[in-house]
Amino acid sequence: MPHVELSLSEPAESRRLSDRSPLGRWAKAVKDAAEPCLVINAKGRVITLSPACQSMFDLEEPTTGRYLLDVLRLFDFSSPGGALSHGEARKMPSLLAVDSGRLARGLLRVQCDDGLCTVDAVATPLRDADSELVGSLTFFCPV
Known about the structure:
By secondary structure, this protein is of the alpha+beta class. The protein has one domain: PAS domain (Beta-Lactamase). The chain has six helices and six strands. Strands 2-1-6-5-4-3 form a six-stranded antiparallel beta sheet, sandwiched between helices. Strand 5 (about 115-125) and strand 6 (about 135-140) form a beta hairpin. It is globular, with a radius of gyration of 17 Å. The termini are far apart. This is PAS domain-containing protein. It comes from Planosporangium mesophilum.
Protein backbone atom coordinates (compact mmCIF):
# COMPACT_ATOMS: atom_id res chain seq x y z
CA MET A 1 0.00 0.00 0.00
CA PRO A 2 1.47 3.42 -0.96
CA HIS A 3 2.18 5.89 1.81
CA VAL A 4 1.88 9.64 1.19
CA GLU A 5 2.80 12.38 3.62
CA LEU A 6 1.88 16.03 3.12
CA SER A 7 3.60 18.90 4.85
CA LEU A 8 2.47 22.49 4.50
CA SER A 9 4.91 25.28 5.19
CA GLU A 10 5.56 28.85 4.20
CA PRO A 11 7.63 29.51 1.08
CA ALA A 12 11.33 30.00 1.86
CA GLU A 13 11.17 33.70 0.90
CA SER A 14 8.33 34.31 3.39
CA ARG A 15 10.23 32.59 6.18
CA ARG A 16 13.26 34.81 5.54
CA LEU A 17 11.12 37.96 5.56
CA SER A 18 10.02 37.89 9.16
CA ASP A 19 9.12 41.22 10.74
CA ARG A 20 12.46 41.00 12.56
CA SER A 21 14.60 40.84 9.42
CA PRO A 22 15.75 44.13 7.85
CA LEU A 23 13.93 43.35 4.60
CA GLY A 24 10.81 42.34 6.51
CA ARG A 25 10.78 45.53 8.57
CA TRP A 26 11.33 47.76 5.55
CA ALA A 27 8.82 45.81 3.46
CA LYS A 28 6.20 46.37 6.14
CA ALA A 29 6.96 50.12 6.24
CA VAL A 30 7.01 50.51 2.46
CA LYS A 31 3.83 48.51 1.87
CA ASP A 32 1.65 51.36 3.15
CA ALA A 33 3.97 54.33 2.56
CA ALA A 34 2.53 57.46 0.97
CA GLU A 35 5.78 58.13 -0.91
CA PRO A 36 6.78 56.29 -4.11
CA CYS A 37 9.34 53.76 -2.85
CA LEU A 38 10.33 50.12 -3.13
CA VAL A 39 12.50 47.45 -1.54
CA ILE A 40 14.53 44.91 -3.51
CA ASN A 41 16.56 41.98 -2.25
CA ALA A 42 20.26 41.38 -2.94
CA LYS A 43 19.38 39.55 -6.17
CA GLY A 44 17.50 42.60 -7.51
CA ARG A 45 14.03 41.11 -7.03
CA VAL A 46 11.18 43.34 -5.86
CA ILE A 47 10.18 42.55 -2.29
CA THR A 48 7.50 45.22 -2.03
CA LEU A 49 6.57 48.63 -3.35
CA SER A 50 4.30 51.35 -2.10
CA PRO A 51 0.90 52.01 -3.69
CA ALA A 52 2.25 55.43 -4.76
CA CYS A 53 5.16 53.74 -6.57
CA GLN A 54 2.83 51.29 -8.25
CA SER A 55 0.61 54.15 -9.39
CA MET A 56 3.49 56.39 -10.51
CA PHE A 57 4.97 53.72 -12.77
CA ASP A 58 1.58 52.33 -13.82
CA LEU A 59 2.54 48.83 -12.67
CA GLU A 60 0.18 45.91 -12.74
CA GLU A 61 0.02 43.16 -10.16
CA PRO A 62 2.00 41.12 -9.33
CA THR A 63 5.36 42.83 -9.17
CA THR A 64 6.79 41.17 -6.08
CA GLY A 65 9.34 38.47 -6.75
CA ARG A 66 10.13 39.80 -10.22
CA TYR A 67 13.52 41.20 -11.23
CA LEU A 68 13.47 45.00 -10.97
CA LEU A 69 14.53 45.58 -14.59
CA ASP A 70 11.61 43.40 -15.70
CA VAL A 71 9.25 45.65 -13.73
CA LEU A 72 10.47 49.19 -14.50
CA ARG A 73 10.80 50.31 -18.10
CA LEU A 74 13.91 52.53 -18.30
CA PHE A 75 14.72 54.75 -21.28
CA ASP A 76 17.74 56.69 -22.54
CA PHE A 77 17.76 60.48 -22.11
CA SER A 78 18.73 60.95 -25.78
CA SER A 79 16.21 62.35 -28.27
CA PRO A 80 14.97 59.02 -29.66
CA GLY A 81 14.63 57.77 -26.08
CA GLY A 82 15.28 54.11 -26.75
CA ALA A 83 15.29 51.50 -24.00
CA LEU A 84 18.50 51.32 -21.97
CA SER A 85 20.85 48.41 -22.49
CA HIS A 86 20.98 45.92 -19.64
CA GLY A 87 24.48 47.12 -18.72
CA GLU A 88 23.37 50.74 -18.47
CA ALA A 89 20.16 49.83 -16.64
CA ARG A 90 22.22 47.96 -13.99
CA LYS A 91 23.59 51.38 -12.99
CA MET A 92 20.20 52.55 -11.74
CA PRO A 93 20.38 53.58 -8.05
CA SER A 94 18.38 50.64 -6.65
CA LEU A 95 20.72 48.07 -8.17
CA LEU A 96 23.85 50.20 -7.77
CA ALA A 97 23.23 50.42 -4.00
CA VAL A 98 23.14 46.61 -3.89
CA ASP A 99 26.19 46.20 -6.14
CA SER A 100 28.32 48.84 -4.37
CA GLY A 101 26.98 48.64 -0.83
CA ARG A 102 26.78 52.44 -0.79
CA LEU A 103 24.17 55.16 -1.11
CA ALA A 104 23.27 55.78 -4.77
CA ARG A 105 21.37 58.58 -6.47
CA GLY A 106 20.51 59.40 -10.05
CA LEU A 107 17.97 60.63 -12.55
CA LEU A 108 15.98 58.04 -14.45
CA ARG A 109 13.77 58.30 -17.50
CA VAL A 110 10.99 55.82 -16.84
CA GLN A 111 7.66 54.79 -18.30
CA CYS A 112 5.09 56.36 -15.97
CA ASP A 113 1.31 56.39 -15.88
CA ASP A 114 1.16 59.41 -18.25
CA GLY A 115 4.08 58.56 -20.57
CA LEU A 116 7.82 58.97 -20.14
CA CYS A 117 8.84 60.92 -17.06
CA THR A 118 12.04 61.85 -15.27
CA VAL A 119 12.41 60.83 -11.64
CA ASP A 120 15.10 61.40 -9.06
CA ALA A 121 15.93 58.08 -7.36
CA VAL A 122 17.76 57.78 -4.04
CA ALA A 123 18.68 54.29 -2.84
CA THR A 124 20.31 53.05 0.30
CA PRO A 125 21.69 49.56 0.88
CA LEU A 126 20.04 47.44 3.55
CA ARG A 127 22.11 45.19 5.80
CA ASP A 128 21.30 42.51 8.35
CA ALA A 129 22.65 42.34 11.91
CA ASP A 130 25.89 40.76 10.62
CA SER A 131 26.38 43.68 8.18
CA GLU A 132 25.63 41.40 5.22
CA LEU A 133 24.03 43.24 2.32
CA VAL A 134 20.45 42.00 1.91
CA GLY A 135 18.89 44.54 -0.47
CA SER A 136 18.12 48.22 -1.00
CA LEU A 137 15.41 50.76 -0.29
CA THR A 138 14.71 53.35 -3.01
CA PHE A 139 12.63 56.53 -2.95
CA PHE A 140 11.47 58.19 -6.18
CA CYS A 141 10.53 61.82 -6.77
CA PRO A 142 9.21 63.23 -10.07
CA VAL A 143 11.40 66.00 -11.50
